[in-house]
Amino acid sequence: MGLPMCSAPRRTTVVVATTGTDNPKDLVMSAPTADRPATEFDTVSADATATSDSTETAPRLGLRKFRDELPLPKVIKIADTGDEHRTVSMRAKVGRHRFHRDLPETDVWAYEGQLPGPTIEVRRDTPATIDWVNDLFDSDGDPATLPYDVVRVPPSTTPTPTTRIAMTPGGRSVKLDPTGAADDSYPALAGTDDLTGATVVHLHGALTDGHNDGWSHNVTAPGGRTRVLYPNKQESATLWYHDHAMAVTRFNVYAGLAGFYLLRDANEASLKLPSGPYELPLMITDRNFETRVPKQPGEQRFTGRPIYKQAGIVAVDSDGEAVDTEIPVSGPFTLVNGKVWPTKKVTPRWYRLRILNACSTRTLVLAVHNTTNESAPPSSPANNTDSAGFIPDRVTPMSVIGTDGGLLAAPAPVSTLEIGPAERYDVLIDFRSLAGQTLELRNEQGTFINAGPGEADATIMQFVIGKSAASDADWEPPVELNPDYRRYLHVGTDLQVGSQTIHSHEHFWVALIPPGPGGKGHPELWELRQLGSTEPSPGHDLIKVIDPRDATLPPAERKVLRFVPVAKLFDDANSIVFSEGSWAVWNILHLGGPPHPFHIHMTQFQMIERGQWDLAALGEEGWNADNGTTGVLPIPVDSAIDPVRQGMKDTYLIKPGEWVKLLGDFTGATGSFMYHCHILDHEDHTMMRPFVVLPKELMAFHGAHGSGHH
Ligand SMILES: [Cu+2]
Questions:
Q1: One Pfam family name from the record (predicted)?
Q2: Phi-psi sector, 125: left (phi>0), alpha (psi -120 to 50), beta
Q3: Is the pLDDT of residue 290 over 80?
Q4: Could you say which of 308, 412, 477, 492 has the lowest number of CB atoms within 10 Å?
């Protein structure tokens, strides 16, 4: 392996395989769909009343559905030409993008100016060198400032919750409303008007050394470039690249800095999965959009620019002082590959969907509904928050074949699929019996943080299935997908990985703490140390759990494991330092607050245990906010790990009250890495920590050590 910063690129092999449709003139009108009744969020614009007819949907939240054909990102294939390095240059730059056919074009920050960025395709074991160039300059040659406004909705003084106001389409920064005439103009979040683009790229899910991994502090200012080597020594998987800049990742990603990276291998090729036009990468995101100052009450005119509109809250810090802060953003509009509610013409055959939830905050529960002649579309707000309004027999099943880090052993059929931020699912769907029908990919829940009736539309995108028969109608998915897949298990004190027994491994302990004074209103991530049996318990910041290994003993004889935090913030000292080649069990205790999509860099892990506490029943015995201490938490109830969640993953959505054990093999890379919540607002605030993996010969000279070992 060459040193990436010292090796000159030997050869550049870039093949642009397909071109996305970005010209509105190329786009086709959507298929007929029943009009939706107006809701409180619908504003009838002059344009909508003038052109609305039976071939178009009524506007929803101010925009019409299915106006844009699903764009497919350009593909950059890093070809295997037999030499050691293939260098590709990828520029983060200011691009022009139209988020919806009826919206004006606007500036975005995007890789190669495209949103999503080009899809990078590379074969396993083909090393790739990428020059990540920060070219985020404006037309005057000055560093560009953020291409949208970040505003804070002040805590509501009316019965309407602040979160709902923040999810209402439109609004603007007060700087665009000099007379202060509109009541939906909001103050900018301090510092965001002057924010220029400091960037660092993380290839999410990749096994690569720490200095190639996008360490958040190692940002590059406009004009800089970073050369990164990706060995690609891992199985075929849906990876993605995105910005990871310290404390501003949420703004950079919302500006557009994300793209797919598809790793391919021989096993995947042998399966003859749907490919080419029948393999669709779907990057799902959400946005809110800015509106002009209304000239008359109720008028809603979009400028085309996104707006990052957050609900403000007043929290209390540990000193009892009031602090202004915000809850994580989510937008009322759902986008796929950069377009709001797009449509895709497909043929009646099997398709492969590479689904990525690239939302900053929102968890999606995906389901594919048959909307042909649908008489009761999910226009009722109640239908947006749960599955009660959906008709189960009109749901087309999906077959999950892969997770974040690779293919499952066998396909797992599902009717709904929960996907948290940064998670990916590789899905097959059979359109063969649906010729001439119309389907919708929908989100069966609202948003888990801003949940409320009508605050998010269920539609994600539409599939219009053609009538012409496909030539390969006989193809069926393979029953076995991945001979290399091995289930990880914890058996006694050993690990069982397929037929291999591993006697020694690391144990790390992390607690996810509910929002409170310690986090100034934000949830926290605590790295824990287990107290020895003779160490006294502190009066605050103490977590106590019954040792589940004592489940068979009488209650009085069961040991209590006690933990104290050793680190709460990113810049606190390292406590997780261990040898390359180690297996490690990460115990994550979720003690309340929202679900957190938990991402560990460098490895693909499996969830080996999943327990559940009933936090509501535990009350303050579960978590006492006054002293940051738990009572003695009982042995949690074992939860099943369904087949989809037995796959290789790098991000797992941890629910309140869960104690999950994530087992990873930390072999094949060294350096400083990060683990964090992938709700980008949480990551940017308090929920990210470093860990260090060193060659074991070096570890002998290193004083620090992990928090547990047996
Ligand atoms: Cu989180």
A1: Cu-oxidase_2
A2: left
A3: yes
A4: 492
Q: Exposed e or buried b for every residue in 408-429, given b needs 16+ CB within 10 A? A: bbebbebebbbbbbbbbbbbbb
Q: Find the helix or strand (DSSP H, E) in which 167 lies.
A: helix 162-167
pLDDT bucket at 45, cuts 50 / 70 / 90: very low
Decide: 89 and 235 in contact? Cβ < 8 Å.
Answer: no
% residues pLDDT > 70 (the chain): 85
Q: Is residue 380 scored above 70 in pLDDT? A: no
Collect residues with CB below 5 Å from ion ligand 1.
596, 677, 679, 682
Residues in the chain: 710
Domain stops at, among 420, 450, 465: 465
Phi and psi at 409, nearest 5°, equal: -65, -35
Q: How far is the CA of 444 from the centre of ligand 1 (A)?
A: 21
Phi and psi at 26, nearest 5°, equal -85, -10
Centroid of ligand 1 to alpha carbon of 49 (angstroms) = 42
The type of residue at 571 is: D
Domain boundary among 415, 431, 465: 465
Range list of β-strands (E), 470-522: 488-491, 494-497, 500-502, 506-513
Q: Note the pLDDT of residue 567.
A: 97
Q: How far apart are the first and last CA of the chain?
A: 33
Q: What average pLDDT does this structure show over 594-617?
A: 96
DSSP-assigned beta bridge partners for residue 407: 402
Asked if 272 and 346 sit in the same domain, the reply is yes
Distances (CA, A) of 147 to 92, 197, 246, 251, 362: 13, 10, 19, 10, 22
CATH code of the domain covering residue 443? 2.60.40.420
From ligand 1's centre to the CA of 568, what distance in Å? 14
Same domain, 417 and 519: no
- 385-411 pLDDT, tens digit per residue, is 333 345 555 789 999 999 999 999 999
> Checking DSSP bridges between strand 149-153 and strand 302-316, what pairing results, if any?
parallel
What was the pLDDT predicted at 392? 54
- Arithmetic mean of pLDDT, 509-525: 94
User: Which of 290, 281, 339 lies closest to 65, judged by CA?
Assistant: 339
Of 579, 577, 587, nearest to 526 (Cα)? Answer: 587
The boundaries of the domain holding residue 564 are 488-699
ipTM: 0.84
Q: Which position has the token pair 């492969």? A: 352
What per-residue confidence (pLDDT) applies to 708? 42
Query: Structural domain tally of the chain?
Result: 2
Place of tokens 């080009």: 118
Q: Are 258 and 319 found together in one domain?
A: yes
For position 451, what pLDDT does the model report? 43
Q: How far is the CA of 668 from the centre of ligand 1 (A)?
A: 28
Is 649 within a domain?
yes
Dist. CA 679 → ligand 1 center (Å): 5
CB neighbour list of residue 248: distance below 8 Å, 6 or more residues apart = 195, 198, 684
Ligand 1 center to residue 701 CA distance, Å? 35
67-81 average pLDDT score: 90
Q: Tokens for 698, please give them.
A: 């070096």
Q: What is the mean pLDDT of residues 197-204?
A: 98
d(CA 526, CA 542): 11
